[in-house]
Design a protein that fits this description.
Blueprint lengths: L9 H9 L4 E5 L3 H9 L4 E4 L3 H4 L11 H14 L4 E5 L9 H15 L3 E5 L5 H9 L4 E6 L5 H4 L9 H17 L3 E5 L3 H10 L4 E4 L7 E4 L1 H4 L17 H17 L11
Parallel strand pairs: 1-2, 1-8, 2-3, 3-4, 4-5, 5-6, 6-7, 7-8
This protein binds 3-methyl-2-oxobutanoic acid.
The site of 3-methyl-2-oxobutanoic acid has 11 residues, from β6.
Length: about 270
């Protein structure tokens, strides 16, 4: 029986990789969901900027603000006694200048209580990432399909399929490791490339749509719980059908209200 109240720390990620233990990570954006994930023994929770899509109904992650992320991250951090919690730095919060990036990173750490931040990009942002790490903040990198660059990429397709982009990604992984990142997410890239990346560095590589030969996996919580039947990319495995469970529960509740069978005597004062 694992000791679930022991908090996962940044040191644990490296030792998990060293002993071949895979890291399980999911996104969450609210207290109750994070609390369930934490008590289920999940290693790591990401307060992803996918909150822009999942919580706010946007079609990409560009609109979400630092203030929005702080509200979600604070709620998740409060729930977690065991899981390590990363929060995404949203679009615009680290691109303007290094000073601005460090100020936003410090604000996000102070206001939320999360354990580290995730930042998209390689060579272009490695200096900024170094400054944030130097301030004492654990950082998770993110390469491959970096959704904040969706407009530059022209869509959400698989990245690094050609040699030039694949070589750049391998260089970026090394740069982020040398900068001191404690984990790196690789999103939607060929499995063989992700496996090569994971084999060449000590820092754990967490995949999403990057095959099995990496050091851990991350999915959006709502995707793996089957909440949106209209969104089913190939890399998502659904472990529940909460869309149907919730739909049936709401239908039953409505019928009970209209049929005057809720509340009954034992549910009344
Ligand atoms: O924002 C997010 O949910 C993410 C994961 C998909 C890795 O960055």
């Amino acid at each position: 029986m694992p000791d679930l109240v022991k908090k996962v720390t940044s040191k644990d990620f490296i030792s998990m990789k060293a002993r071949g233990e895979k890291i399980a990570m999911l996104t969450a954006y609210d207290y109750l969901t994070a609390s369930i994930f934490d008590k289920a023994g999940l290693d790591c929770i990401l307060v992803g900027d996918s909150a822009s899509n999942v919580m706010q109904g946007n079609t990409n992650t560009i609109p979400i603000s630092v203030d929005d992320m702080i509200v979600y991250a604070r709620s998740v951090a409060r729930a977690c006694q065991h899981s390590f919690v990363f929060c995404d730095m949203p679009f615009g919060s680290y691109q303007i200048s290094k000073a601005d990036a460090v100020a936003n990173a410090v604000l996000m750490m102070k206001e939320t209580g999360v354990d580290g931040l995730k930042i998209e990009g390689g060579e272009e942002y490695v200096d900024t990432i170094e400054c944030i790490i130097r301030a004492g903040i654990p950082v998770c990198g993110h390469l491959g399909l970096t959704p904040q660059s969706v407009k530059a990429f022209g869509g959400f397709g698989v990245r690094a399929k050609d040699d030039a982009e694949a070589e750049k990604l391998l260089r970026d992984v090394k740069l982020l490791e040398n900068a001191g990142c404690i984990a790196i997410v690789l999103e939607k890239i060929p499995s063989a490339l992700a496996a090569r990346a994971a084999a060449t560095v000590k820092v754990p590589i967490i995949g999403i749509g990057a095959g099995v030969d990496v050091d851990g996996q991350v999915l959006v919580g709502q995707d793996m719980l089957g909440m949106d039947p209209t969104f089913h990319p190939k890399f998502v495995r659904t472990y529940a059908n909460l869309h149907n469970v919730i739909t049936e529960a709401v239908k039953s509740y409505s019928a009970d209200v209209k049929g005057k069978t809720f509340p009954n005597e034992s549910e009344s004062y």
